[in-house]
Each structure stands twice: as C-alpha cells, then as structure tokens.
Amino acid sequence: MSFLDRLLGKQQQYEGSAVTSIMNTTANLPAYPDANYASFSQRGYAENELVFACIREIATSAAEANLCLYDDDKEKILNAPLAQLVQQPAADFTQYDFLESLITHLQIAGNAYVLKERAGVGVVSLMLLRPDRVQVVPRKGYSYDVSGTRYFIPAEDVGHLKFPNPNNDFYGLSPLQVLLKQISLDTDATNFTRAFFNNAGVPSGILKLKRKIGSQDEADRLRTQWRSQFRGNKNWHRIAILDEDASYETMGSPIGQMEIPELRALSETRICSAFGVPAILVGANTGLQRSTYSNYREARESFWEETLLPLYRRIEQFMAGLLQPEFPSERGYLGFDFSQVKALQEDETALVQRQLTRAQIAKELINAGFTPESALQTAGIDTDMQHTGYLPTTLAVRGLQGVEVKEVKALTQTGANRLLEPLEQSYEKEVDRLERVLEKYFREQLNRADGIIGRYLSDDEADTKNVQMPFNEITIIPLAADAQLAATMSPVLKDTMKRTWDVIEAAGIFKPMPFDPELPILQNSLRGAGSKINDVSRSAIRSQISTGTGRGYSIDQIVRGVPKDDYAGLRSVVRETYKNRSRAIARTEIAHSQNASTAARYRGAGVTEVIVRDGDDDELCAPYSDTTQSLDWALDNPIAHPNCTRAFAAVISGVTE
C-alpha cells in the first residue's frame, strides 16, 4: 500500500481537469532544453556544475538556521507537539533534511509541495511531494501522479510554496526557466571544450584529395583512419604526413580565437546573479579572480542578508500558515533562530574594537570629572559593571557626593601570593576561548590541505624519483598561513593581556595604572605568538614526501600511504598534525600572553624580583618552582615547555606604596 493509500484510505483515480505547469514554447527559435521539471533537474541541476553548486549553497544553509516555536516572551518552547513536529517532520526526516529538500525543490521547480499526514490527534508528520508529479486542481485541491495512478488530495492537506510568477496564476517561476539560455550556453561551452581536446586540440576540417574517391566506403575508411590516428589526448601533437595529392584544410576557428573564457565568465555571472549567490562562494572563476579573505567574508554576509534572509522569511511565513492553524490550543509563533549563523554575527575583532572605543570614551569622561556611573551610561557600557573607586590623581573632584575614593591597600607578600589564584582562574577561561578559535582555524586548514592533495589521488605514476612533485610543504601550508594564524589569535591574546592586567588591578596591591597595549613587553610577546606552529607541520610533511620519493612510491601512494611498509602517507600525517592540537597550543599561547602582561604590570609597579610557581612533577619545571628569580629572567622564561602552568608572584620587598 502506498503512502497516499494509507493517508486517504483508498486509491482515488482522478480524471478531472487540472492546470498543468508545462511552459509555452515558440517555434523558429534555438532548440533550448524543454522548460519542465525533468529538464530543469537533469540538464540544469544534475549536469551543470555551477547550477548544482548554487542550489547546494542555498539549500545547505539550513544547517545554520533553525525553525523553532517561541512563546510571547521570545523563549523557545521545546516539548509542545508543534515544536516537536518542526524539529522532526517525519520519522526519518530531520528538520535539516526537510528544509534542504524543500529549498532544493523550490530552486529547481519554483514550487514546493508539503503533504500533511494526519492521525487521530491531528497532523503527525510532513512529507514533501515531487513537484513534477503535482498538478493544481483549481478551487479543489491537487492531483498527484504515481506510476500512472493519479490521486486527488484536498487543498487543506497540502501546503504550496512558490516563487512569484506574473505569467501564471497557479505555479511559481523557476530560476532555471529564466536561465535556460545561459545554462545551455555554459554546458555547451564545457562540452565543446571537451570535444575540442578529444580531437587533439585540432579544429574540424576537410581532408582534400586531388584524385577522385571511388566510393562512399572509401571515404568513410579514410575519415576513420584519420580520426584514429589524430583524435584523443593520446594522439596530441602527432605529426601528419600527406603525399602531394592530399591536403588538410581547417573549417573551425582555433579555440584561442573564440573567447571561450569571456563567454564562460558571462554565463557564470548571470547564473550566480539569478540565484543570488556571490560567485566567490561557489568557486566560479569570475569570483575567484577577485578572491581575498575579506572579500569572501563580505560576500557571505551579503549572501545571507540579500538572498537567504528573504528566503527564510518566506519559508517561515509559509510554515506558520501551514501548521499553526492545525494546533489552535498551542500559544506562540514559529520563527527562525539565526543566532548560529556566523555570517550575521559581529566580527570578534570589530566587537573588541567597539568595546575599547566605548571604554576610552568612559575614561575621558571620568577624567573630565563626571561620575563613573554617568560616564558608563553615556558610553553605552553596562551600568552593572563595578567600579573600583580608584580615580586619577590629577582629577579635581567636584560634586561627587556619595562617591567613595578608595585608598591603595597596604603592600604585603601574602596579598601578592594570593593574586595567583584569580590569575589561574582567568587562565583557564582564556584557554577555552582560544581553543575554540584554533579549532575553527585548523578545520579550515585541514579542508584546504585535503583539497590540494586530493587532486592527485588518481595519479598512478609508479616511480617518483625522476618526477617533479606537484606539491610540497609550502604549497600545502603556504607561508601566508602564518600571518593568518597570527591574525586569528591576536584578538584573543590581546584580550587575555587586558584581562590579566585587570585582575592585578582589582587586587588593589599596587597603585592604579591604565592598561597600554603598546607596551614593548606586550608587543614583543604578540609578535612571537604562534611563530613555530606551522613550521612543525611543514617539517612533518617534508619528511613524509622525502621518505616517499626516496622509496620510489607513486604520488597516489605518497598521499594515501603504504601500510605494509609502515608508511603513513601525507593525508594521514596532515590529519594527525591538526588533530587535538588546539588545546595544547591554546594553553601555551595563553601562558605566554598572561605572563607577559603580568611581568609588564609588575615592572610598572617597580617590582624587580618574582617567586616562580611551577609544577613539581616534571624535570624542566621542578628545579625552578618556589625559587626567587629576577623579573628579566621571568621575561626570558615565561614557560618551560608546551602546556606549562608557570606563574609569577611579585616579590614586594623594596616596592614603594
């Protein structure tokens, strides 16, 4: 029994009139593909790489947007039947599967149909209907064809989402119908290029003979013999020898004169434009010509704001109209949660800069004599923040009724030692933050490296001793990755230095001193951050390539590895290089930054010596734990090894209050 039999109780042969979605055609025009769903899905989606990439780019965005049920206070409702239905529309269909398929149908056909499956308690699941099988029955419902059997489905059991179509009252306009000419041009250009090179890069032509050809069979034999000798990539650059009674005359133009790249760029631009997808996001050549990291980020933001947000608002209203009337007893509304959409989140660097600007405004207002509370409010900073009560010594206090100006606490060694506990707590939080940033960075690097070495997995060259390797450690991990890593870590490390400084300030054991990120100690620490991380990875890759070429492995073996020879291979080494490194690197870099900030603050307070607090259970740290060292020694030895937990307590002897 089919699912429609189960839903409707019996097969219903429908023979009434229905409105078809077949488009009109005009005679005496170029033979473009038929304007119907089968043509759109096969000639467009399945055969054109750029169309496929654009639709997938739109459809897979459903991984970041989540349709939820909210109450009147904008809090998510999780356990209500409607909330559970949108999270799991069918037993084997998650919300992501559902939205991905719905968007794919909509982009290919311009229409998407959702069938509501009912039980005694109401709607219990949702099912997508293939658009090519659905026909609208005006004022009644829908006709659905399965293997020649047509079913009638009442209008109240089907939701119809469609794009606007000014020429049809019943069906939406598919982007692929608008793009028929451009898709055909792009596909034909690809096929032509392939045919050109299959023909050894030689345009079609005429083989002329001065003598008369005796029969059609002889002509066919000569044509076949010519093609067998000069067609295909194995016969490229073969030299043809003709006697004096024969000559070859080309009929077509050389490919270089046909402006194929310009034609491809034109069709790529128009295809991406019709789908609203920036060319750089789908790897189209017209987008890659201007690709930079900032351009990519801006393109993704534009893609979400101009294409995806309007689409999801359309889907949101459609789903609300489809389902909320079915659950009249449930309060609330359906809406998309975009909080996980990275393109819509404020860049972390810009956020930090904005916070610093606000803090500077508040500082200037306080220095001008305004109360801390009014200064914070004017600068747009959370007024729940606690003020230390310390004010600049140059401030002429006017009218600060009720404001207590604190005195600096008496300097004691006990107070200096206690400072290590809040510093340790701050350290763990900063490590967690940097670890998340590094995990994202390493995922991107791993995907990039996989993409580079994956291109050569089909190379069956048996011996690489005399073959130029198509990649090395620099092509897999370019030097530009060092700058990218430094830029990735820099905002977190700067923030760590500021938070460390604030922890020491909050202890109140030294006279107040504002944080200055331009201090030489801090700048030197930032310049050295992460300087050897990629060098370690490059060294491992270089060693693998050297070993593989020395053993005479093929490129495929160098990439995949040779288990019987205990040779891991590049792919395995690259993955292990990036695996589980984020935590160790985060601990190392945060320790460097925190100890640099601590030393800078101590030097500003006049501290010249420190007590080293370190682990007692490893040979590198134990000799220095609980020893007194100079502050210069602490700057030269911020940690003893990766994952080191070394910290410094100030020796306050000789420090003036």
Describe the protein:
With 657 residues, the chain is mostly helical. Among the domains are: 3-23 and 39-176, no CATH class; 346-406, no CATH class; 413-650, no CATH class. The chain is 47% helix and 11% strand. It has helices spanning 3-8, 37-46, 49-59, 81-87, 95-109, 175-178, 180-198, 216-230, 260-275, 285-288, 293-323, 348-367, 372-379, 413-418, 420-454, 473-476, 480-507, 520-527, 533-550, 555-560, 570-578, 582-604, 631-636, and strands spanning 66-70, 76-77, 111-119, 122-129, 134-137, 141-146, 149-154, 158-162, 205-209, 246-250, 333-337, 609-613, 628-630, 647-650. Helix 3 crosses helix 5 and helix 19 packs antiparallel against helix 21. The termini are far apart. The model is unreliable at 20-33, 395-409 and 459-465 (pLDDT under 50).
Give the structure's gist in a few sentences.
The chain is mainly α and 657 residues long.
Query: How much helix is in the residues?
Result: 40-55%
Proportion in β-strands: 5-15%
Strand order of the largest sheet: 2-1-11
> What is the straight-line distance between the termini?
89 Å
Count every beta strand, where a strand is a DSSP E run of 2 or more residues.
14
Low-confidence stretches: 20-33, 395-409, 459-465
Oligomer: single chain
Largest sheet: 3 strands, antiparallel
How large is the count of helical segments? 23
Average pLDDT across residues? 77
Global shape: extended
The assigned structural class equals mainly alpha
